[in-house]
Amino acid sequence: MHVLVLFVLTSFLFATPAEAGAWMREKGKVFNAVSSTIRKDPGTGRYHYDSSVYIEWGAAPKFTLGFDSYENFSSSGHILIFGRVPLSAPDAQHKFAFQLGVGAYRWLQDWQPLYRTTLSYGTSFQNRFGDAWLSVDAAVETRRGASQPLYKLDATFGITHSPRIKSLISFESAYTRSAPVSWTIGPAMTISAGKLGHIFGGVQFRNSNTARIGLKIGLWREF
Predict the structure, then answer these.
(1) Share of the chain above pLDDT 70, in %
(2) Rounded mean pLDDT, 127-155
(3) pLDDT in tens, 87-103
(4) Phi/psi zone of residue 28: left (φ > 0), alpha (ψ -120 to 50 degrees), beta?
(5) Element containing residue 5 per DSSP (H, E)
(6) Burial (CB count <10 Å: 0-12, 13-18, 19+), residue 162
(7) Which helix (H) or strand (E) holds 4?
(8) DSSP readout, 84-117?
(9) 185 vs 120, 171, 202, 215, CA distance in Å?
């Protein structure tokens, strides 16, 4: 049972891009991110793969609608539809938002309902390296079939060095009372590829007993 809990904890990490959070998507605008991660288990030599798809749409000036999916090809995954509303003024230096999501998660071939509530904080500022931003998300997930809720605390710090290049570092953690805290940290960069979007690449380090290091690549697009 503890192995199952730990696997579910780590499977939910790094499912959403760094630019999500307290910021609202402009009305009519769409943001799409797709990514894949590969990890090698040094004990068995086997490779582990997962993929994610994330979409945001500015449905209204004060309402962002989104879709979030994750698939671990060996055992687990989830799909989620969510809505986000602001809790602060559009021009506020310190932004807050509330997000509610509903969907389903999978363990092996068993699908069960999933509910997620998220409180987000975000701020942006300038420094000598460029325009910087900080995003913090605190979430509670309730999953039918699980006796305890899952608590998540994620943070991302990023810098826009130029219109073409961004660097960022993300820390994500998850906790339930029946298992230790699970965490992942990952530095990454995005590089503009013109009309194709921004190419994303990064490395992940996590406190797992196996496959601790991962390589993540993806593509971000806004239109």
Answers:
(1) 91
(2) 92
(3) 999 999 999 999 999 99
(4) left
(5) helix 2-11
(6) exposed
(7) helix 2-11
(8) EEESS-TT-SEEEEEEEEEEEEEETTEEEEEEEE
(9) 19, 4, 10, 12
Query: Shortest CA distance to 7 belongs to which of 209, 198, 204, 163?
Result: 209
pLDDT value at residue 107: 87
- The DSSP letter of residue 66 is E
Whether 216 and 37 have beta carbons less than 8 Å apart is answered as yes
Which residue pairs from 2-5 have beta carbons closer than 8 angstroms and sit at least 24 positions apart in sequence? 2/178, 2/179, 4/107, 5/176, 5/178, 5/179
58: tokens are 């500015």
Q: For residues 149 and 141, is the Cβ–Cβ distance under 8 A?
A: yes
Mean pLDDT of the chain: 88
Beta bridge partners of 65: 57, 83
Structure-block tokens of residue 192: 């503009």
pTM: 0.86
Residue 168 to residue 80: CA distance in whole angstroms = 25
Q: Which residue has the tokens 């995954």?
A: 77
Which amino acid appears at position 159 of this protein?
Answer: I
How would you label 113-145 residue by residue, b for 16+ Cβ within 10 Å and e otherwise?
ebbbebebbbeeeeeeeeebbbbbbebebebee
Residue 12 pLDDT class (50, 70, 90 cuts): very low
The CA distance from 84 to 25, in Å, is: 9
